[in-house]
Specification:
Helix content: 40-55%
Structural class: alpha+beta
CATH superfamily: Glutaredoxin
Strand order of the largest sheet: 2-1-3-4
Shape: globular
Strand content: 15-25%
CATH topology: Glutaredoxin
Radius of gyration: 12 Å
GO molecular function: electron transfer activity
Order of helices and strands: EHEHEEH
Distance between the termini: 16 Å
Protein name: NrdH-redoxin
Largest sheet: 4 strands, mixed
Length: 81
């Protein structure tokens, strides 16, 4: 399952959530404004910025503000490995 770091007010986050739902991709949402450790993680993979959505995959890699196509591609490549 992927983890999506988000905020309640992020339009890009809402769009990606809708796309993930439509594609049937399971994910967990973590609000970086409520979880300081999550905010630090997002900063660590985004050059000190709290850029959302940031998506973390099971292999430990992350994509920042990805398209649904990028998420699907990453998940498909993980399955074929």
């Amino acid at each position: 399952m992927i983890t999506m770091y988000s905020t309640t007010w992020c339009g890009y986050c809402h769009r990606l959530k809708s796309q993930l739902d439509r594609e049937g991709i399971q994910y967990q949402v973590v609000d970086i404004e409520r979880d300081p450790a999550a905010a630090k993680y997002v900063e660590s993979v985004n050059g000190g910025n709290q850029t959302v959505p940031t998506v973390r995959f099971d292999d430990g890699t992350a994509l920042t503000n990805p398209t649904i196509k990028q998420v699907k591609s990453k998940l498909e490549s993980a399955l074929s490995s």
